[in-house]
Amino acid sequence: MSATTRPATPPTGPSRPPALVLRGLVKHYGDVPAVAGVDLEVRRGEFLTLLGPSGSGKTTTLRMIAGFTLQTAGTIEIDGADMSQVPPYRRDVGMVFQNYALFPHMTAAENVAFPLQMRRVGRSEIRRRVAEALALVKLEGHGDRYPRQLSGGQQQRIALARAVVFQPRLLLMDEPLGALDKKLREALQLEIMHISRELGATVIYVTHDQEEALVMSDRIAIFSEGRIEQLGSGEDLYERPVSLFVADFIGESNILRGRYEHDGQGDWLVRADWRWRIGPSAVARAGLASGSGAALIVRPERLRLVGTDESGAPGTNALEATVTDVLYLGPIRKYELLLPDGQPAVVREQGGGEREWHAGDRVRLTWAVEAGVLVPLPGG
Ligand SMILES: Nc1ncnc2c1ncn2[C@@H]1O[C@H](COP(=O)(O)OP(=O)(O)OP(=O)(O)O)[C@@H](O)[C@H]1O
Ligand SMILES: [Mg+2]
Protein backbone atom coordinates (compact mmCIF):
# COMPACT_ATOMS: atom_id res chain seq x y z
CA MET A 1 0.00 0.00 0.00
CA SER A 2 2.90 2.30 -0.77
CA ALA A 3 1.07 5.48 -1.72
CA THR A 4 -1.37 5.59 1.17
CA THR A 5 0.59 4.05 4.02
CA ARG A 6 2.09 5.97 6.83
CA PRO A 7 5.83 5.51 7.30
CA ALA A 8 6.77 2.21 8.97
CA THR A 9 8.73 4.05 11.64
CA PRO A 10 6.60 7.04 12.52
CA PRO A 11 8.36 10.15 13.74
CA THR A 12 8.74 10.09 17.48
CA GLY A 13 10.11 12.42 20.10
CA PRO A 14 9.09 14.29 23.16
CA SER A 15 6.84 16.63 21.17
CA ARG A 16 4.53 13.82 20.01
CA PRO A 17 1.94 12.63 22.50
CA PRO A 18 1.25 8.89 22.99
CA ALA A 19 -1.19 7.30 20.54
CA LEU A 20 -3.69 6.64 23.33
CA VAL A 21 -3.98 7.68 26.97
CA LEU A 22 -6.67 6.31 29.29
CA ARG A 23 -7.05 7.95 32.67
CA GLY A 24 -9.23 6.58 35.45
CA LEU A 25 -11.54 4.87 32.98
CA VAL A 26 -14.62 3.39 34.65
CA LYS A 27 -17.80 1.77 33.36
CA HIS A 28 -20.66 0.69 35.60
CA TYR A 29 -23.68 -1.28 34.43
CA GLY A 30 -26.07 -0.62 37.28
CA ASP A 31 -24.09 -1.73 40.32
CA VAL A 32 -21.70 -3.89 38.29
CA PRO A 33 -18.30 -2.29 37.67
CA ALA A 34 -17.39 -3.76 34.28
CA VAL A 35 -14.30 -1.54 34.20
CA ALA A 36 -13.12 -0.32 37.59
CA GLY A 37 -10.41 2.27 36.89
CA VAL A 38 -8.02 1.73 33.98
CA ASP A 39 -4.93 3.90 33.38
CA LEU A 40 -2.92 3.15 30.26
CA GLU A 41 -0.56 4.83 27.82
CA VAL A 42 -0.09 3.24 24.42
CA ARG A 43 2.94 4.24 22.36
CA ARG A 44 2.71 5.14 18.72
CA GLY A 45 3.15 2.08 16.52
CA GLU A 46 2.85 -0.24 19.50
CA PHE A 47 1.04 -3.59 19.43
CA LEU A 48 -0.61 -3.79 22.84
CA THR A 49 -2.80 -6.68 23.96
CA LEU A 50 -5.49 -6.76 26.62
CA LEU A 51 -5.41 -10.27 28.05
CA GLY A 52 -7.59 -11.63 30.81
CA PRO A 53 -10.33 -14.05 31.79
CA SER A 54 -13.90 -13.84 30.58
CA GLY A 55 -15.77 -10.90 32.08
CA SER A 56 -12.64 -8.98 33.13
CA GLY A 57 -13.60 -5.87 31.14
CA LYS A 58 -11.53 -6.18 27.93
CA THR A 59 -14.37 -5.65 25.45
CA THR A 60 -15.90 -2.87 27.52
CA THR A 61 -12.55 -1.04 27.57
CA LEU A 62 -12.16 -1.43 23.81
CA ARG A 63 -15.71 -0.22 23.16
CA MET A 64 -15.11 2.88 25.29
CA ILE A 65 -11.95 3.65 23.28
CA ALA A 66 -13.94 3.29 20.05
CA GLY A 67 -16.79 5.38 21.45
CA PHE A 68 -19.50 2.70 21.17
CA THR A 69 -19.87 2.64 24.97
CA LEU A 70 -19.87 5.84 27.02
CA GLN A 71 -17.63 5.73 30.09
CA THR A 72 -19.06 6.35 33.57
CA ALA A 73 -15.89 8.25 34.53
CA GLY A 74 -12.41 8.95 33.23
CA THR A 75 -10.90 10.30 30.02
CA ILE A 76 -9.72 8.99 26.66
CA GLU A 77 -7.06 10.84 24.68
CA ILE A 78 -6.13 9.85 21.13
CA ASP A 79 -3.04 11.50 19.66
CA GLY A 80 -3.16 14.10 22.41
CA ALA A 81 -6.79 15.12 21.77
CA ASP A 82 -9.52 14.51 24.34
CA MET A 83 -12.01 12.10 22.73
CA SER A 84 -14.06 11.35 25.84
CA GLN A 85 -17.23 12.93 24.42
CA VAL A 86 -16.55 12.56 20.69
CA PRO A 87 -18.84 10.21 18.69
CA PRO A 88 -17.29 7.01 17.25
CA TYR A 89 -17.17 8.10 13.60
CA ARG A 90 -15.09 11.13 14.51
CA ARG A 91 -12.52 9.26 16.61
CA ASP A 92 -10.70 7.90 13.55
CA VAL A 93 -10.49 4.38 14.96
CA GLY A 94 -10.71 1.14 12.98
CA MET A 95 -12.31 -1.88 14.61
CA VAL A 96 -12.39 -5.62 13.94
CA PHE A 97 -14.82 -7.79 15.92
CA GLN A 98 -14.82 -11.49 16.72
CA ASN A 99 -17.94 -12.32 14.76
CA TYR A 100 -17.04 -10.96 11.31
CA ALA A 101 -19.35 -7.95 11.42
CA LEU A 102 -19.42 -7.56 7.63
CA PHE A 103 -22.51 -6.14 5.95
CA PRO A 104 -24.08 -9.29 4.46
CA HIS A 105 -25.81 -7.49 1.58
CA MET A 106 -22.58 -5.86 0.36
CA THR A 107 -19.74 -7.49 -1.55
CA ALA A 108 -16.30 -7.71 -0.02
CA ALA A 109 -15.16 -4.67 -2.04
CA GLU A 110 -18.28 -2.68 -1.03
CA ASN A 111 -17.63 -3.57 2.61
CA VAL A 112 -14.07 -2.29 2.36
CA ALA A 113 -15.21 0.84 0.50
CA PHE A 114 -17.82 1.70 3.15
CA PRO A 115 -15.63 3.70 5.58
CA LEU A 116 -14.25 5.71 2.64
CA GLN A 117 -17.75 6.52 1.39
CA MET A 118 -18.67 7.66 4.89
CA ARG A 119 -15.69 10.01 4.70
CA ARG A 120 -16.75 11.28 1.26
CA VAL A 121 -13.61 10.12 -0.50
CA GLY A 122 -13.77 10.47 -4.31
CA ARG A 123 -14.83 7.50 -6.45
CA SER A 124 -11.53 6.80 -8.22
CA GLU A 125 -9.59 7.21 -4.98
CA ILE A 126 -11.95 4.70 -3.34
CA ARG A 127 -11.37 2.22 -6.16
CA ARG A 128 -7.61 2.53 -5.81
CA ARG A 129 -7.56 2.27 -2.02
CA VAL A 130 -9.96 -0.71 -1.92
CA ALA A 131 -7.74 -2.55 -4.40
CA GLU A 132 -4.72 -1.80 -2.24
CA ALA A 133 -6.45 -2.94 0.95
CA LEU A 134 -7.64 -6.19 -0.69
CA ALA A 135 -4.09 -6.82 -1.92
CA LEU A 136 -2.77 -6.16 1.59
CA VAL A 137 -4.93 -8.98 2.98
CA LYS A 138 -4.20 -11.20 -0.05
CA LEU A 139 -7.77 -11.28 -1.37
CA GLU A 140 -7.32 -9.38 -4.64
CA GLY A 141 -9.57 -11.69 -6.62
CA HIS A 142 -12.39 -11.82 -4.07
CA GLY A 143 -13.82 -8.29 -4.18
CA ASP A 144 -17.06 -9.34 -5.90
CA ARG A 145 -17.96 -12.05 -3.43
CA TYR A 146 -20.57 -11.66 -0.72
CA PRO A 147 -19.60 -12.51 2.88
CA ARG A 148 -21.56 -15.79 2.77
CA GLN A 149 -19.35 -16.85 -0.17
CA LEU A 150 -16.20 -16.40 1.92
CA SER A 151 -14.65 -18.66 4.57
CA GLY A 152 -14.34 -17.47 8.16
CA GLY A 153 -10.68 -16.60 7.70
CA GLN A 154 -11.41 -14.71 4.48
CA GLN A 155 -14.22 -12.78 6.13
CA GLN A 156 -11.86 -11.72 8.90
CA ARG A 157 -9.32 -10.59 6.32
CA ILE A 158 -12.01 -8.45 4.69
CA ALA A 159 -12.94 -7.06 8.11
CA LEU A 160 -9.27 -6.18 8.62
CA ALA A 161 -9.06 -4.51 5.19
CA ARG A 162 -12.18 -2.48 6.06
CA ALA A 163 -10.67 -1.45 9.40
CA VAL A 164 -7.38 -0.19 7.92
CA VAL A 165 -8.53 1.22 4.55
CA PHE A 166 -9.08 4.74 5.94
CA GLN A 167 -5.72 4.72 7.75
CA PRO A 168 -7.14 5.06 11.25
CA ARG A 169 -5.05 6.45 14.07
CA LEU A 170 -5.84 3.38 16.14
CA LEU A 171 -6.69 -0.15 15.15
CA LEU A 172 -8.79 -2.03 17.71
CA MET A 173 -9.36 -5.77 17.44
CA ASP A 174 -11.61 -7.77 19.75
CA GLU A 175 -10.74 -11.49 19.58
CA PRO A 176 -10.63 -11.32 15.77
CA LEU A 177 -9.41 -14.91 15.49
CA GLY A 178 -11.59 -16.38 18.24
CA ALA A 179 -13.92 -18.21 15.84
CA LEU A 180 -11.18 -19.77 13.68
CA ASP A 181 -9.46 -23.14 14.05
CA LYS A 182 -5.94 -23.33 15.48
CA LYS A 183 -3.98 -23.59 12.21
CA LEU A 184 -5.76 -20.69 10.57
CA ARG A 185 -5.50 -18.68 13.76
CA GLU A 186 -1.72 -19.08 13.83
CA ALA A 187 -1.37 -18.11 10.17
CA LEU A 188 -3.53 -15.03 10.65
CA GLN A 189 -1.66 -14.02 13.82
CA LEU A 190 1.49 -13.62 11.75
CA GLU A 191 -0.38 -11.89 8.97
CA ILE A 192 -1.97 -9.36 11.32
CA MET A 193 1.44 -8.65 12.85
CA HIS A 194 3.04 -8.10 9.46
CA ILE A 195 0.23 -5.94 8.17
CA SER A 196 0.11 -3.74 11.26
CA ARG A 197 3.88 -3.33 11.15
CA GLU A 198 3.81 -2.50 7.45
CA LEU A 199 1.19 0.17 8.14
CA GLY A 200 2.99 1.45 11.22
CA ALA A 201 -0.38 1.09 12.98
CA THR A 202 -0.98 1.39 16.71
CA VAL A 203 -2.94 -1.73 17.61
CA ILE A 204 -4.96 -2.60 20.68
CA TYR A 205 -5.77 -6.25 20.52
CA VAL A 206 -8.02 -8.31 22.79
CA THR A 207 -7.64 -12.01 23.38
CA HIS A 208 -7.96 -14.53 26.17
CA ASP A 209 -5.38 -16.80 24.55
CA GLN A 210 -2.06 -16.29 26.34
CA GLU A 211 0.04 -17.81 23.56
CA GLU A 212 -1.54 -15.50 21.02
CA ALA A 213 -0.77 -12.55 23.28
CA LEU A 214 2.86 -13.62 23.77
CA VAL A 215 3.44 -14.16 20.05
CA MET A 216 1.90 -10.92 18.83
CA SER A 217 2.42 -8.19 21.40
CA ASP A 218 5.00 -5.57 22.25
CA ARG A 219 3.29 -5.26 25.64
CA ILE A 220 0.44 -7.05 27.36
CA ALA A 221 -2.01 -5.64 29.90
CA ILE A 222 -3.32 -8.39 32.17
CA PHE A 223 -6.94 -7.64 33.07
CA SER A 224 -8.63 -8.87 36.22
CA GLU A 225 -12.00 -7.71 37.51
CA GLY A 226 -12.05 -4.50 35.49
CA ARG A 227 -8.50 -3.45 36.32
CA ILE A 228 -5.03 -3.83 34.85
CA GLU A 229 -3.23 -6.21 37.17
CA GLN A 230 0.12 -5.88 35.37
CA LEU A 231 1.40 -4.20 32.22
CA GLY A 232 4.63 -5.27 30.54
CA SER A 233 6.35 -7.32 27.87
CA GLY A 234 5.65 -11.04 27.72
CA GLU A 235 9.00 -11.60 29.38
CA ASP A 236 8.17 -9.18 32.22
CA LEU A 237 4.94 -11.00 32.90
CA TYR A 238 6.43 -14.46 32.72
CA GLU A 239 9.70 -13.80 34.56
CA ARG A 240 8.54 -11.13 37.00
CA PRO A 241 4.82 -11.53 37.75
CA VAL A 242 3.63 -9.12 40.45
CA SER A 243 0.86 -11.33 41.79
CA LEU A 244 -0.36 -14.90 42.06
CA PHE A 245 -3.06 -14.02 39.56
CA VAL A 246 -0.56 -13.05 36.85
CA ALA A 247 1.76 -15.98 37.61
CA ASP A 248 -1.18 -18.33 37.32
CA PHE A 249 -2.60 -16.74 34.19
CA ILE A 250 0.66 -16.70 32.17
CA GLY A 251 2.30 -20.10 31.94
CA GLU A 252 2.61 -22.74 34.65
CA SER A 253 3.95 -22.04 38.13
CA ASN A 254 5.04 -23.77 41.28
CA ILE A 255 3.70 -21.84 44.22
CA LEU A 256 5.12 -22.10 47.74
CA ARG A 257 2.91 -20.25 50.19
CA GLY A 258 4.26 -19.02 53.51
CA ARG A 259 5.60 -15.90 55.19
CA TYR A 260 8.30 -13.50 54.06
CA GLU A 261 11.00 -12.93 56.68
CA HIS A 262 14.07 -10.78 56.77
CA ASP A 263 16.78 -11.49 59.36
CA GLY A 264 20.53 -11.02 59.89
CA GLN A 265 21.26 -13.84 57.42
CA GLY A 266 19.12 -12.58 54.57
CA ASP A 267 15.61 -12.97 53.13
CA TRP A 268 13.47 -16.07 53.39
CA LEU A 269 10.17 -17.60 52.58
CA VAL A 270 9.28 -19.51 55.72
CA ARG A 271 6.80 -22.32 56.09
CA ALA A 272 6.47 -24.77 58.98
CA ASP A 273 9.97 -26.24 59.32
CA TRP A 274 11.15 -25.23 55.83
CA ARG A 275 12.70 -22.03 54.68
CA TRP A 276 13.99 -20.96 51.28
CA ARG A 277 16.26 -18.13 50.30
CA ILE A 278 14.90 -15.23 48.28
CA GLY A 279 17.14 -13.18 45.98
CA PRO A 280 17.60 -9.44 46.60
CA SER A 281 15.95 -8.31 43.35
CA ALA A 282 12.83 -10.36 44.07
CA VAL A 283 12.69 -8.87 47.57
CA ALA A 284 13.08 -5.33 46.20
CA ARG A 285 10.35 -5.78 43.59
CA ALA A 286 7.81 -7.23 46.01
CA GLY A 287 8.45 -4.50 48.61
CA LEU A 288 6.91 -6.56 51.44
CA ALA A 289 7.32 -6.02 55.15
CA SER A 290 9.01 -8.82 57.08
CA GLY A 291 6.34 -11.11 58.52
CA SER A 292 3.76 -10.66 55.76
CA GLY A 293 2.04 -13.51 53.98
CA ALA A 294 3.81 -14.26 50.72
CA ALA A 295 4.35 -16.85 48.04
CA LEU A 296 7.49 -17.90 46.24
CA ILE A 297 6.91 -18.70 42.57
CA VAL A 298 9.25 -20.88 40.53
CA ARG A 299 8.60 -21.70 36.87
CA PRO A 300 8.66 -25.44 35.96
CA GLU A 301 11.75 -25.15 33.72
CA ARG A 302 13.72 -23.49 36.53
CA LEU A 303 13.43 -26.54 38.80
CA ARG A 304 15.84 -29.47 38.68
CA LEU A 305 15.30 -32.96 39.97
CA VAL A 306 18.11 -34.60 41.96
CA GLY A 307 18.32 -37.65 44.21
CA THR A 308 17.48 -37.26 47.90
CA ASP A 309 21.11 -38.11 48.70
CA GLU A 310 22.47 -35.24 46.59
CA SER A 311 22.86 -31.86 48.19
CA GLY A 312 22.01 -28.85 46.06
CA ALA A 313 24.75 -26.64 44.64
CA PRO A 314 25.60 -23.51 46.64
CA GLY A 315 23.13 -20.71 45.94
CA THR A 316 20.23 -23.09 45.42
CA ASN A 317 17.12 -23.92 47.39
CA ALA A 318 15.79 -27.41 47.83
CA LEU A 319 12.54 -29.14 48.61
CA GLU A 320 11.60 -32.81 48.86
CA ALA A 321 8.89 -34.30 46.69
CA THR A 322 7.50 -37.51 45.24
CA VAL A 323 7.12 -38.06 41.50
CA THR A 324 3.50 -38.87 40.62
CA ASP A 325 3.62 -38.81 36.83
CA VAL A 326 6.08 -38.52 33.96
CA LEU A 327 4.91 -37.15 30.62
CA TYR A 328 7.12 -37.50 27.58
CA LEU A 329 6.54 -34.46 25.32
CA GLY A 330 9.23 -34.90 22.68
CA PRO A 331 11.91 -32.32 23.38
CA ILE A 332 10.95 -32.04 27.03
CA ARG A 333 9.94 -34.35 29.83
CA LYS A 334 7.32 -33.10 32.22
CA TYR A 335 7.29 -34.39 35.78
CA GLU A 336 4.30 -34.04 38.05
CA LEU A 337 5.08 -34.24 41.73
CA LEU A 338 3.56 -34.02 45.17
CA LEU A 339 5.08 -31.86 47.91
CA PRO A 340 5.09 -32.97 51.58
CA ASP A 341 2.13 -30.67 52.30
CA GLY A 342 0.06 -32.32 49.55
CA GLN A 343 0.44 -29.47 47.05
CA PRO A 344 1.25 -30.39 43.45
CA ALA A 345 4.44 -29.29 41.67
CA VAL A 346 5.56 -29.49 38.07
CA VAL A 347 9.01 -29.67 36.49
CA ARG A 348 9.99 -29.45 32.82
CA GLU A 349 13.33 -30.86 31.84
CA GLN A 350 14.72 -30.23 28.40
CA GLY A 351 16.26 -33.18 26.58
CA GLY A 352 15.03 -35.43 29.37
CA GLY A 353 17.51 -34.22 32.00
CA GLU A 354 20.57 -36.03 33.33
CA ARG A 355 18.69 -38.83 34.97
CA GLU A 356 15.29 -40.35 34.36
CA TRP A 357 12.77 -40.53 37.17
CA HIS A 358 9.66 -42.63 37.57
CA ALA A 359 6.37 -42.37 39.37
CA GLY A 360 6.87 -43.15 43.04
CA ASP A 361 10.50 -41.91 43.21
CA ARG A 362 11.42 -39.66 46.12
CA VAL A 363 13.45 -36.72 44.83
CA ARG A 364 14.73 -33.28 45.71
CA LEU A 365 13.69 -30.25 43.72
CA THR A 366 16.40 -27.61 43.52
CA TRP A 367 16.38 -24.13 42.04
CA ALA A 368 18.70 -21.16 41.86
CA VAL A 369 17.79 -18.53 44.44
CA GLU A 370 17.42 -15.89 41.67
CA ALA A 371 14.79 -18.05 39.91
CA GLY A 372 12.28 -17.51 42.73
CA VAL A 373 9.77 -14.66 42.42
CA LEU A 374 8.20 -13.25 45.56
CA VAL A 375 4.57 -12.05 45.49
CA PRO A 376 2.16 -11.01 48.26
CA LEU A 377 -0.55 -13.41 49.34
CA PRO A 378 -4.02 -11.89 49.06
CA GLY A 379 -5.04 -10.77 52.54
CA GLY A 380 -1.46 -11.51 53.60
N1 LIG B 1 -24.27 -4.14 28.15
C1 LIG B 1 -23.99 -4.65 29.34
N2 LIG B 1 -24.89 -4.65 30.34
C2 LIG B 1 -24.62 -5.16 31.56
N3 LIG B 1 -23.45 -5.73 31.88
C3 LIG B 1 -22.50 -5.79 30.94
C4 LIG B 1 -22.72 -5.27 29.63
N4 LIG B 1 -21.58 -5.48 28.90
C5 LIG B 1 -20.72 -6.09 29.73
N5 LIG B 1 -21.25 -6.29 30.95
C6 LIG B 1 -20.59 -6.92 32.11
O1 LIG B 1 -19.35 -6.28 32.30
C7 LIG B 1 -18.33 -7.22 32.63
C8 LIG B 1 -17.18 -7.11 31.66
O2 LIG B 1 -17.61 -7.55 30.38
P1 LIG B 1 -16.68 -7.55 29.10
O3 LIG B 1 -17.53 -7.92 27.93
O4 LIG B 1 -15.96 -6.26 29.02
O5 LIG B 1 -15.65 -8.72 29.44
P2 LIG B 1 -14.52 -9.39 28.55
O6 LIG B 1 -13.26 -9.26 29.32
O7 LIG B 1 -14.55 -8.84 27.18
O8 LIG B 1 -14.95 -10.92 28.54
P3 LIG B 1 -14.88 -12.04 27.37
O9 LIG B 1 -13.48 -12.57 27.39
O10 LIG B 1 -15.86 -13.07 27.82
O11 LIG B 1 -15.26 -11.40 26.06
C9 LIG B 1 -19.00 -8.58 32.67
O12 LIG B 1 -19.33 -8.87 34.00
C10 LIG B 1 -20.25 -8.37 31.83
O13 LIG B 1 -21.26 -9.24 32.23
MG1 LIG C 1 -14.96 -9.66 25.28
Structural description of this entry:
- With 380 residues, this protein is α+β, with helices and mostly antiparallel strands.
- It has two domains: 20-92 and 168-239, 3-Layer(aba) Sandwich (Rossmann fold); 252-376, OB fold (Dihydrolipoamide Acetyltransferase, E2P) (Beta Barrel).
- Helices cover 24% and strands 34% of the residues.
- The protein is built from nine helices and 20 strands.
- It has helices spanning 58-66, 108-118, 123-136, 152-164, 182-199, 210-216, 234-239, 244-249, 280-286; strands at residues 20-29, 32-42, 47-51, 73-78, 81-82, 93-96, 170-174, 203-207, 219-224, 227-232, 254-263, 266-271, 274-277, 293-298, 304-307, 316-329, 332-338, 344-350, 362-368, 373-376.
- A six-stranded mixed β-sheet has the order 6-7-8-3-9-10, sandwiched between helices.
- Strand 12 and strand 13 (274-277) form a beta hairpin.
- It is elongated.
- Mean pLDDT is 91; it is low at 1-7.
- It binds adenosine-5'-triphosphate (ATP) and magnesium ion.
- Magnesium ion (MG) binds at residues 58-59.
Give a brief outline of the structure.
This protein is α+β, with helices and mostly antiparallel strands. It has helices at 58-66, 108-118, 123-136, 152-164, 182-199, 210-216, 234-239, 244-249, 280-286, and strands at residues 20-29, 32-42, 47-51, 73-78, 81-82, 93-96, 170-174, 203-207, 219-224, 227-232, 254-263, 266-271, 274-277, 293-298, 304-307, 316-329, 332-338, 344-350, 362-368, 373-376. It has two domains: 20-92 and 168-239, 3-Layer(aba) Sandwich (Rossmann fold); 252-376, OB fold (Dihydrolipoamide Acetyltransferase, E2P) (Beta Barrel), CATH 2.40.50.
